[in-house]
Amino acid sequence: MAVPKILVCRTMPTSVLRRAEAAGKVELITRPDHEGEQAPSRDWVLSNLRDNTISGAVICLSDKVDAEFLDAAGPSLKVISTMSVGYDHIDLPLCKQRSVRIGNTPRVLDDAVAELCLLLTLMVTRQVPVATRTVREGEWPHNPWTPTCFMGPQLRGKTIGFLGFGNISQSLCKLLVPFKPARMVYTTSKARPFQRDDEYFSSLMQDAFPVDRIKVENVADKFEMARQADVVFVLVDLNPSTKHVVNKEFLDAMKPSAYIINASRGGTVDTSALVEALRNDKIAGAGLDVIEGEPGEFYCGNPRKKPSGTRQDPSRPRDGDKWLRCDDESRVCKDKSYRCNGGKVGSGANAGTFNAAKGALAGAGAGAAASSSSGNKATPKTYPFWLGGAAGCCAASITHPLDLTKYRLQTATVKQGMFRTIILSVRSEGVTSLWHGLTATLLRQFTYSVTRFAVYEDMKTRVTAASGKAPTTSELALCSGTAGAVAGVVGNPAEIVLVRMCSDLNLPKDARYGYKNCIDGLVRIVKDDGAGTLFRGLSPNVFRSVVMNISQLGSYDLFKGILQKLDVVPDGPVLQTAASFCAGTLSTTLCTPIDVVKSRVQNLKKGAGNVGVAGVIRDALAKDGPTVFFRGWTPAWLRLQPQTTLLFLFFEQFKSLVDKSREGKAQAEVRVNN
Predict the structure, then answer these.
(1) Phi, psi dihedrals of residue 421, rounded to the nearest 5°
(2) Which CATH superfamily, name and number, covers 387-669?
(3) CATH no., domain 5-103
(4) Helix-strand-coil percent breakdown of the chain, rounded to 5?
(5) What's the rounded Cα separation, in Å, for the pair 50 and 7?
(6) Do 110-373 and 5-103 fall under one CATH topology?
(7) Spatial distance between the Cα atoms of 560 and 395, rounded to a whole number of angstroms
């Protein structure tokens, strides 16, 4: 007998279905893991419903169940389970007509949503979005602390209103008890006076809610409730009777000092009316977990319509902004510019606009404290000094065959192409010969890369700390150039060993160095040629290192900053790869001529005479012409481009791991202290 097929439209945070599949009880039709947890396309859902004999479907709010959905599934579909309390996205009468049973998840998220409501309330009443932006945009020095700075109302002694008084509202009531509100007033679809022993109020009473200290009262008329409440929570399901239950009339009835919090459905609040109320200061603010029509774009007075020719950064609205972009996890709060000017709290350039903030903005208090304690200047992050070297080792281990080919081309006495060089190496010594000299590469990264990243990041951090803003282009060039000079000196001995080990195949067998590894190479160079040989070619190497670091480290940060300002792609691996590509191409073009001279100088044998850099250049020009200085550009680019990309991708990922480790330690400390 065939097992039932279940269409799973999202990656679910549970292993229950997987265990059922492993036991042979069901067969799951799921999206590929690499597509993530985002909503699938409608075409993907419908095609899988048509192509498979689906018995059940697991969906979320964004998956609309209508005639098209049910027609595609056919009569085999018996049950639909939605990971939500609400089911306004499901055509219930049609499902009943076709004998499809519906399941939802009541009570599962009651406490979580209640906590979110409390978070939004504290954010909007205590001006957290404004404080966050003030710190992040560097405005804190111009907004010195005063007794009324970012002042907001307390919940103590206030009247809290609820549109809808189900399980979530009652869970929220219990969370509000420590804040000592005076009253809880609620309006439900059917007037239901509060009674301790009424089963409807069991969620509220099971933890001994202190009704002797905080009054709980039913207010049948929603407009009267709006007039009484200092904070109104909208927690009703969305149906025809609750569509725009918060409209212009409701908002007009609220106090000018009142706040509205919506964690139900976007459609329960008339967005146009809310925007008008906020712009005209009819209410004090709004904290929204949901917005009508999300995800999408919103135009004040006309939701979902964006004025043509307008492109604004949605995270930083300004006076005159007409739209804002949101997604499923938006938190929108009324945003006024509360400037701390002599104790006066008034509207500024941001009056009457929204501030869209993704994720948790609750860290604003900590951010403000950090900024204040550091003298009102940005405190740049610091990372372990060896992080750049570790990233360099990882990248160089992958690109070493191209590095080896570059050195052999640059030290060859006859012209030969990149691929011919690779083929000759493989034919004469096997595939493993492409990793000949890997120990020298790792030694170079442990010396050269550790030094250049450590010096560059330290100098950049000092510049940022001193000025309180990101370094300028000239400052980046100075930091990276200085780091390159120091690293060029420190890394020169490893460079000598690396060049000799990589170019050994170009020499006759009886003339090869034959170093076993990098340590053997260092010992034999000192023994056979003298310690001074370890610093042969120092001047071209330092010069190359300065140019390399300016065109690689400095230009990476420069290109990354430009791409971030253009806002073409979000900050992440794609943007980092694009910045690395630009930096790698620039570095290759500038460094190849220096690299050719450096490699030839460092490969000179003892007894070659005091040829020097000038002599090498004259000899190369006489034999091969000016193009000799770009010999090996292609393998250099093919090596440096992926090496640069991998270097910065590893470096960014390592920094991210350090950040996560620090966050984990900080959270552990908080748990211990609490």
Answers:
(1) -65, -45
(2) Mitochondrial carrier domain (1.50.40.10)
(3) 3.40.50.720
(4) 55, 10, 35
(5) 11
(6) yes
(7) 19
Report pTM: 0.45
- For residue 204, give both structure tokens: 């509220």
Diameter of the chain measured on Cα atoms: 104
The three-state (H, E, C) secondary structure of 537-587, written as one string: CHHHHHHHHHHHHHHHHHHHHHHHHHHHHHCCCCCCHHHHHHHHHHHHHHH
pLDDT digits (tens, 9 = 90+) for 138-182: 777 776 677 777 788 999 999 999 999 988 999 999 999 999 999
Which position has the higher pLDDT, 207 or 413?
207
Coil, strand or helix at 372: helix
d(CA 166, CA 105): 14
Residue 536 CA to residue 426 CA, distance in Å, equals 30
What gap in Å lies between CA 358 and CA 341, rounded to an integer? 29
Going by the DSSP 8-state scheme, the letter that residue 505 receives in this structure is G
Q: Is the dihedral of CA 491, 493, 496, 502 positive or negative?
A: negative
User: How does DSSP classify residue 3?
Assistant: P
Residue 215: name the closest of 161, 263, 258 by CA.
161
Classify 467 in phi/psi space as left (phi over 0), alpha (psi -120 to 50) or beta: alpha
Task: Express each pLDDT in 545-591 by its tens digit.
Answer: 888 888 888 888 888 888 877 767 777 888 888 988 888 888 888 87
Which amino acid belongs to residue 205? M
Beta sheet of 27-29, edge-to-edge order? 27-29, 5-8, 54-59, 79-82, 101-103
Give the confidence band of 101 by pLDDT, cuts at 50, 70, 90.
very high
CATH architecture of the region 110-373:
3-Layer(aba) Sandwich (3.40)
Q: Which amino acid is at 60?
A: C
- pLDDT bin (cut points 50, 70, 90) of residue 1 is low
* Cβ–Cβ < 8 Å for 21, 3: no
Instruction: Please give the torsion angle defined by the CA atoms of residues 228, 234, 235 and 239, in that order, rounded to the nearest 10 degrees.
Output: 120
Kindly tell me the burial class for residue 130, based on how many C-beta atoms sit within 10 Å of its own C-beta (0-12, 13-18, 19 or more).
Answer: buried
Show the CA angle centred on residue 250, arms to residues 249 and 251, nearest 5°: 95
